[in-house]
Description:
CATH architecture: Alpha-Beta Barrel
Bound molecules: phosphoenolpyruvate
Oligomer: single chain
Structural class: alpha/beta
Radius of gyration: 17 Å
Distance between the termini: 10 Å
Largest sheet: 8 strands, parallel, barrel
CATH class: Alpha Beta
Amino acid sequence: MRKPFIAGNWKMNKSVTEAKELVSSLQKKVKDVENVEIGVCPTALALSEVKNLLADTNIKVGAQNIYWEDSGAFTGEISAEMLADINIDYIIIGHSERRQYFNESDQDVNRKVKSALAHQIKPIICVGETLTERKSQETENKVRFQVKADLAGLTADEVKKVVIAYEPIWAIGTGESATAEEANRVIGIIRDVVRDEYPQVADKVRIQYGGSVKPHNCIEIMKQPEIDGALVGGASLDAASFAEIVLKTTELY
Ligand code: PEP
């Protein structure tokens, strides 16, 4: 069975001081959880301190982005090599906000995924359709294309370590979430795409849902057989809400 993974994407929120307060409070609430993997993804600035605070706990730490080169003249960027040095566990790659506001292409995503894996950091690859694409029945084509392009050239052993987050863009930060059944259906399609190329590991890859996951709707979503957890934005900024999502999920497994 795949272990569900609930990760919080804090985006550009929380100072270092606030980040430390948030994880200290969260850790007390979820310290006994074993059957659900938990992760937080603070800003790059807070990663080091948050990782130190969470060392030897059941909460993993992820970054929100990297550049694919290890070092060099790339002002403002950080690399997977640097994140590996402070034992970062995950990197969110290709979040729709990066694709939309920073013009990240699937080729960029693929390069970043390869760089993360080369440094033993697990990528959380985000895919999903816009509202226009959904309305014109393009959801399936869009996610098929993204998953293929984002995983291109990886070995089966590498794909096993990848987490995919299906995040319909129209559901992110809007309070609108896909119905649990619809999210389950699209995630099933994503798994089929992985299976086409990597039949031996497709059932091992964890595929999360992301898009307005809150304490009130998480059970419905997490009950779905294809959904292996959630990437949580807004609700992860509050220790009580995020802990409630984690604790409700533990009851299902
Ligand atoms: C996200 O940022 O990945 C996300 C899913 O945000 P929210 O939960 O706020 O919709």
